[in-house]
Records
---
Amino acid sequence: MKKITLKDIADHFGVSISTVSKAINDSHEISRDVKLKIRQYAKAHHYRPNRIALSLLKKSTNTIGVIVPNILNYFFTQVFYGIEKTANSRGYTVISCVSDESFIKEQQTMKLLSAGTVDGIIMSLAEQTQAKGDLQHILDVMENQIPMVMFDRVTDKVECDKIVVDDFEAGYKTTKYLLQTGCKKIAIVSSIFNSSVGKLRVEGYREALQEMGLDYDDKMVVKVGGADDLEILISLLLDSIAVDAIIALDEMTAVDTLNILKMKGIDVPDQISIVGFTNGRLSKYVSPALTMVSQHGKYIGELAANILMDRLAYEGDMPFTTKLVKTSLIERDSTRKVDKNHRAYQ
Amino acid sequence: MKKITLKDIADHFGVSISTVSKAINDSHEISRDVKLKIRQYAKAHHYRPNRIALSLLKKSTNTIGVIVPNILNYFFTQVFYGIEKTANSRGYTVISCVSDESFIKEQQTMKLLSAGTVDGIIMSLAEQTQAKGDLQHILDVMENQIPMVMFDRVTDKVECDKIVVDDFEAGYKTTKYLLQTGCKKIAIVSSIFNSSVGKLRVEGYREALQEMGLDYDDKMVVKVGGADDLEILISLLLDSIAVDAIIALDEMTAVDTLNILKMKGIDVPDQISIVGFTNGRLSKYVSPALTMVSQHGKYIGELAANILMDRLAYEGDMPFTTKLVKTSLIERDSTRKVDKNHRAYQ
DNA sequence: ATGAAAGCGCTAACAA
DNA sequence: TTGTTAGCGCTTTCAT
């Protein structure tokens, strides 16, 4: 059985296409019996109005496009999950694309999506794009009047709705927490030093140190690139400075760091505390279970989808908003307990 | 700037729409200079042909729909990643949907996708659908001439291309391996006893036992539902039988089981070996690192996408195929080393 | 070399 | 109550 259209039904009953259309849309203009037999026939033959034709006519696709940098990253998976669920519940379909942290792929994808395929876009910038700073492809989309929500990795150069994790506060809060547990020499291991997110966390860290009258030392911020050997970098760090805490800016690095320290016979958290970013699936299963910063990925996804769909539904203009989502520190066993006396001074 | 169409360009130059269309598509019918100025103008104004209009005309959307039961499950994330990458490289867009293991949601999603939105579908059945056994919605899609590839959780009731993990062999191989390491009392902990996948693994397990002349005991197969407390179920198991190996049918359960055994002061692997299914991100980070069965998710995704797109590109009919993808056992530290003498007998 | 017209599947204003 | 027509944006014959 081929796909059935209004025309097929019209021909079958010898009526006009518009009669069939009206009958199926339960118009009052159509007589009881005609309506009945047409609807019955349509149901029997699994008639479904062609969404493409509808989209062309209505100039709206009921579809939103999502571009995430890396779907294998649990944070983005969670965001995507939140988006999909929310969009779905409001009758939208989701086209999902992965930029794979590549500028070119992001650019191509934006072009594709802005060619009438989606009503709006939710995205987080690829690392390469952030490093490069070329955002023309995104500005083009905005000029095309396609509403967009950016989350997590955003940029000031584009005016649109944004949802950002309060990464500055997260860096600040985490550092403060470690200081409260009595740590003094806090290092950072970052695999995302090119992204806004990574930079903000480091700034928050810096602020917390400064507030306590501690010096910021560039050597304490270890940058790990794809090809680098984390073990060597950490060894170098530990050899030159008596570190007593490490903040890892992503989950994998946190776990890797933990394992490296364990291999070196260093006790966690007695000798060195570890806090990791992005509370995913790994952290609670390693031992000691890692204290982590949760970014509430699913919530961010829901929020992004709702903001976008609200804008799509709203006639007239809405000002752009930027929502700041706070992180939560999930205390587990890779950090010492907070020193009560010390805390009293805060 | 609003979205620009062929008509806008035609009006601007006082030519016909078809001239513009031809110019943009670099037709030889159009004169050098007209072509040049039109193309230039189009580029300057970011003209992009409307994909929806194209789809309607060509009766093909260059889009494939993917339905996975649970995107938070790393296996499915991997498959999705493979699909997205492959589809993209061949010029296809991916609409991704999550059934959330729900029959209703799967049904709705199928309807949506089959309304002309996609050229083909890749899917894995929701657990509820497998339990219920009602596949009408899927048969409808096939009747609508929409090519489909099912992977992992498939069904005999639908004729289409399929990719299945050789779960029988995986269960068999895993059991055999444990026997070779000297284990005799092997239990299974399953959270997916309703799915074809779960059943096949248990059958493979059974076969391996039988081959060695060992009895299959129903009590050795522990079924964990969502509300059940794994710890209690494992305690009950261990109290009644002197188990020396446990096969966990998903990664989370494997890790949970490991932690429960450790808490009970049971040594892994000396007292009890553990093998888990689906090699994800957790397994290698826990200690002892878990021996796991890898299902090659990304590869399955690539394969599914290629099979589907090959079929879409092919004129004339192709017979349906079912590919059986073998699993790999990744030996780590939660199992004993294979007993060489024992192996000699195999 | 350029344009007119038909048509993909559908809805909606307007006629009958 | 039913039908005719136009049009969403595009390509593709078939004139001109």
---
Amino acid sequence: MSKPETQATNFVRDVIAADIAAGKLKPEELVTRFPPEPNGYLHVGHAKSICVNFGLAEQFGGRCNLRFDDTNPAKEEQEYVDAIKEDVRWLGFQWAGDVRFASDYFDQFYEWAQHLIRKGLAYVCDLSAEQASEYRGWATKPGRPSPFRERSVEENLDLLERMKNGEFDEGSRVLRAKIDMASPNMNLRDPTLYRIRKQAHHHTGDKWCIYPSYDFAHGQEDAIEGVTHSICTLEFADHRPLYDWFLEHLPVPSRPHQYEFGRLNLDYTVTSKRKLKRLVDEGHVDGWDDPRMPTIHGMRRRGFTARAIRNFCDALPVAKSDGVVSIAQFESAVRDDLDKHAPRAMAVLNPLKLVIENFAEGEVENLSAPRHPKEDMGERRLPFTRELVIDVEDFSEDTSLSRKKFKRLVLGDYVRLRGAYVIKANRVEHDADGKPSTVFCELVENTVGENPPEGIKPRGVIHWVSLSEGRKATIRKYDRLFLSPSPDKGEEDFLTHINPTCKTVLEDCWIEPELADAAPESSFQFEREGYFVADRFDHSPENPVFNMTIGLRDNWSDKA
RNA sequence: UGGGGCGUCGCCAAGCGGCAAGGCAACGGGUUUUGAUCCCGUCAUUCGGAGGUUCGAAUCCUCCCGCCCCAGCCA
């Protein structure tokens, strides 16, 4: 399918365009940011956010920062920082300047905390987490003021300093903003600004034992970096008043604005970091980059190209509604991209031996075939020999099968070997189980690139590989990880929806000789089978390994 | 329940008072040495529901219904 000629709607883009039209902003002054917390691997949902933020900057000629929102040392690790940087680059984006870290601004945040205290807008609270929760009240019940709410500026300053110096235990005290304990917006009932965490931080080591909360950090990070449009997901809409409150009460260098859009959800897919981590930790998949994972690392290993992922994301509207996109739409983007860019080749996944009895033993006829039916990718060598393999599925002894229902090789009938001769199956040998083990055939002379003589009607076209010239390969087939469209809804554990046959390893596959030399991560269409990628890590010319990215579109099998 | 957000074809959605875009899926048909691609065609008298305003409403008003988010010293 061709890409939609109208670009997907994006209300943030409209806001930016309006800001420019109103003279509030020059296009090159636009600054966005992608602000992941390094507490896990990025997934499809993040891919959309990346495309939105970097894409907008690109469109208007502005900039987009990559900033790690690393305010919680308990959950964050360097491994994730590295993986996230790799993912953003792999998707094809370049962040402006150096990678930023929220933790680079901790000194500034501390000064701003003191500033709020001096203005009487923040206080150290000694309530336990439980007590604080009780004081906060309930949706319909206003909260009560903390008994520590009216401490003096001096005492607050002193206490905060001592929190910073590690004099108090974790959980014993927090710094809170003094806003409104009766606000209908729970976020405004004196939110926490700093909490004590005596843990090493992946970026700042043991310099700090107090860490700012998301709310006390995010807007200020944006302001420090000159971010103009801070784009986040819907669940932060309730935080916007708080975001604005800090920017209004602090001497920040710029005034960013927050906009929220609906995150991307896909059916048959789980994207909560907690659940993804469980799949990895409990061994249901082979790691964060398992080709079945919806992580960017996993999708990459699966053979979903960066371009396909980007096209998919760019075609999705940026809106305020929170829907579930069909995985079929994603798959369509993948096929669309791979069809255009993947060279064709032949691979036999479940081999059945063919002997062409009227072709000389030991002879090799080097046929050639285009690498792509439409794009100019040159030709590849296709060696034809006496012994070949075809897929077991492509042969039948049932001569009553209609030509319409079975367009493959049938005993006593003709079929076209793709890019080669028309052949006829004459007789079959069986193994001990009664299954066909060898099919003896004859080829029809002068049918390479030519139609067979009058009266010979091949049932169809099947793919094949030379037994002597082809190469053995391992092919890993993948299917969707979950059988349920919404594995994480419902009472039951989402793991009960895992597809038991989502991974099949085929060790006895045959591929065209050229395929063995494929570069890792290069994609091919194995004709009549689907799209496959040379495994990023396991593939080598000696031991070719391909992962199935996705099958070809199939409009007949369930109708036949 | 208080606050915030959202309800238009099976899915994602445009639309902003003038007579329901588009993509995915589905379904017919054509081309084809991939049952792929490509091409052509079909697919909402109706916009969560009920009233009201108007010559005219998915678009404005009222009430009702449904879904999501918030009560971490997570982000």
---
Amino acid sequence: MIFLLRELLKLELSNAVERVVGQTYSFEVDIAPQGFGDFATNAALVGARYARKSPMQLAEQLREELKNSELFESIQIAKPGFINFVMKRSTLLRVLHRIIELDNYPVNKIGTGKIQFEYGSANPTGPFTVGHGRQLVIGDVLSNVFRELGYEVTREMYINDAGRQIKLLGRSLWVRYNQILGVKDIDIPEDGYHGQYLIDIAEKLADEQKDRYKEKWDDQVSQFFERYAVESILKDMKEDLMELGCSFDVYFSEKSLVSDGTVDQVLKILEQKGCTYWKDDALWFKVSEFVEEDDKVLIKKDGSLTYFLTDIAYHYNKYKRGFSKVYDIWGSDHHGHIPRMMAAMKALGIEDGFLNVILHQFVTLKRGEEIVRMSTRAGEFVTLQELREEVGVDATRYFFAMIDPNTHMIFDLDLAKERSSDNPVYYVQYAHARICSLFEQARHKSVLFEKGKDMELLSDKSELDLIKRIDAFEDALKDVARTLSPCKLTQYLEQLAYDFHSFYTKCLIVDQDNPRLSNARLNLSYATMVILRKGLALLGVSAPEKM
RNA sequence: GCGCCCGUAGCUCAAUAGGAUAGAGCAUCGGACUUCUAAUCCGAGGGUUGUGGGUUCGAUUCCCGCCGGGCGCACCA
């Protein structure tokens, strides 16, 4: 049974449109701007071309058709052809009753099927940077929202524990270890890892192993240092994830794709389809056959595998696991990787739409007037941990969620630190804390809170605005899913908090002399609280009862 | 040179699959606490949406050119 206001309206309108125009088309229903009633639709504007009438004429006909509906108090038509609806108060209250009755906002489970979000994937060659933080938060929030909408979501992190970078990491650690043992004339390779964290790890290692590997280097030693470095760094990374409130269902090892034969399988398929060839002692994939890009190497002439090859294998593995769609979240510097991955998907016979890539732009850090340049290899960056410790988990998560992934983001550290109380997260949290204190007050003053009663007494504009906003929660979630941008949710919550704060300022909620009106307003506050909690939980941000 | 993304208030960002008067926060100015948390509310100022065209009832949004910025263009990942 439909109880959301906009859903109800859309249904009635669709029926009317079908009767009047004789066909269906998509249109919008929104909360109307100030002075244009409760809700507004562009149905007549969009439909004008199908109906072969002017928008105003069509609007008039639709109004006539809807005249007898029980939902509306009145229907007006405005300038180019908007139809504006004033709802009956009893209609507005339906949502509220439903939420109170369920003690929850029942989101329509429109999602079907198994999907996957892959994010936070990083070389285990150093701690997470703030850039990773952005990606982690985007992925985590999107996963939460898709799950809320009914999808079966797997959160996954790909661990690039193979390849040249890992060898470099092992070598870099070995150099640090030797430096600690006093070996001179030994330096980290030019393109190796120079960060302080490797010195820390080397110190621990030197402590454990003494001079066992001093000035000794062969394949076995190399492997030992690689493993030691990766394990140490992974441990720190997982701790970081826990602190940030990000959990994954699967940590997928790149190495495992070789050992379990997936890579060979993929190579065989590509060869069979004639998508590969040998040139200069290397194996190439015919990217150019599928998209306008140059061919790429799969197996290097030294026999080692490229990242491209293992990534194809990884996505083949995802496909075999039965996901209907997978979403990869990558930094924008990887955008060049998209066309060739799409080409590979085609070559493997995987249907369009399976692989979806969400790119996020870089995070620039600003300290004072200075832009902080960041590079993992040079060891010049601010870690996610430092950021989290400076501004707190709630602010970190909220800040990353509130900006569209596609927007280049400037993170002002001083601002985040010094003016932390100006962060919008506190604005939303404060609304929740205020509601909690209202119930405290009600108990204190012995004002009775009875769920689901007296709500017909709600009539102030601020009260009705708040109801409409509560109603729109599901649309906010759908917007997040459609645009793949968590900022739609933070924006909605700020709107909701704003509507609540206005209502709070204008209406005395706990009033001993007016117990029934108080109860009505407590019910409205309660419904608001339900949404705030739910929304903040989806963001992974706490909902404090006191501030 | 080619490709991807971006350009909106002084700053950080929004603006739903083209919609009505382009919105918030910070900053600036002026109001509101003897009554539920002033981390709040009410109001004011601040914009030729980088720029020039095009598409149409209507463009911040779509298309083309130009200017400016970020990022790619590896047998790195």
